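To: structure subgroup
Subject: Chain for Friday's discussion

All,

I'm putting the inputs and outputs inline so they're searchable in the archive.
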Amino acid sequence: MKTVLVINYSQTGQLAEITAQVVAPLRAAGHQVHVETLVPVTAFPWPWPIVDFVDAFPECVQLDAPPLEPLSIPADRDFDLVILSYQVWYLSPALPMTAFLQSPAGRRLIAGKPVITLVACRNMWLSAQETMQRLIAEAGGELRDHLAFTDQGPALATFLTTPRWVLTGRRDRWLGLPPAGVAPEEIRKAGRFGRALADALEGDAEKTGAPMLTGLRACTVNPRLALSERAGRRAFKVWSRLIRACGRRGQWRRRPMLLVFALYLIAMVLTVVPLSLLLQWLLSPLLKPRLDRLRAELELPSGSQDFNLKAYE
């Protein structure tokens, strides 16, 4: 039987619920699973007051993570597999996960280990996953699979339902729009990954260097969103530097710039993003070859194929 380390940080409980669905079949198969929940020294609020929410933006983008409480396990403990369950904040990994991957203990725990990443977010996780890949590689880990769970509503609807959930804690149906978050049925179906992973571990597949969760519709990429996300990422880097030049997190002197950024963000969501998606749709015949290549690249390593679904659902 194998040992599996799960690193988790979930504000709403949704990500923890998905992670539990993945982990349950591993435990049922007899594998030893340790779930380590990250605890920041200064807790992030839930729901978020809007000022605190915007004030976290520059550090998220610049990967300047606050310290964590000590882990409950020693840094030299050996595991056969590591699963990193993370949220996305401002197109970047949530700060607690960034803190873990930058910490000496975190880097030591994943060095030389096969790693699976699991994300649950609105829908724009691609930039955050690219950052995760880099941080994992810098720590000496080997990304083996990636699982992505996204909100159930249409992309434009989630521009309203997700901020409402973040700022008020309410995720129910609103203004005729679907509830915020991943659909309950998709959460329940997450167990397929645990069942497939249990079989893979039993066959020592974690030692082969190949993905273990292909054919299970692990992640599906909308390449049109990828282009919008990359443009947003470039803008976020500029804004984050400007705001940090005005002061540190929590200081009043940078709040005027935070207000300007918040207004910019609202304007971008209401105008630039829809126009960008519309333009890409109109040009889709010309962009199709590029978008197909981009989709295939970004869906690695686990992919969106479904040839193993019947065996594990």
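Points worth raising on Friday:
The longest strand covers residues 142-150.
The beta strands are 3-8, 32-37, 81-86, 88-89, 92-93, 114-121, 142-150.

D.
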